[in-house]
Amino acid sequence: MPASRKSGKMFYTLRPSREGLPPFSDIRLPDGTIIRRVDETIHKKALSNAAKALKERLDR
User: Fold this and answer.
1) pTM for the predicted model, two decimal places
2) What's the pLDDT score for residue 1?
3) 27 in helix, strand or coil?
4) What is the pLDDT of residue 58?
5) Superkingdom of the source (predicted)?
6) Are residues 2 and 8 in contact, defined by beta-carbon separation less than 8 angstroms?
7) Phi and psi dihedrals of 12, rounded to 5?
8) 2: alpha, beta or left, given left = phi > 0 and alpha = psi -120 to 50?
9) Mean pLDDT in runs of 10 for the chain (60 residues)?
10) DSSP strand E in 1-60: where?
């Protein structure tokens, strides 16, 4: 495994959703840091789903 993958540094930035673009894209910096640009709509939906799942789990 390359050393850059062992660094574990990843940053997320949100971008507005645009038709035809993938849900996220990665930019790898020379020091091994990964910047992941995430589609804002998909990010909000994932947060909503996670909150719903947590609430259901806590209600049991």
Assistant:
1) 0.57
2) 32
3) strand
4) 93
5) Bacteria
6) no
7) -115, 140
8) beta
9) 56 84 88 90 91 92
10) 10-15, 24-28, 34-39
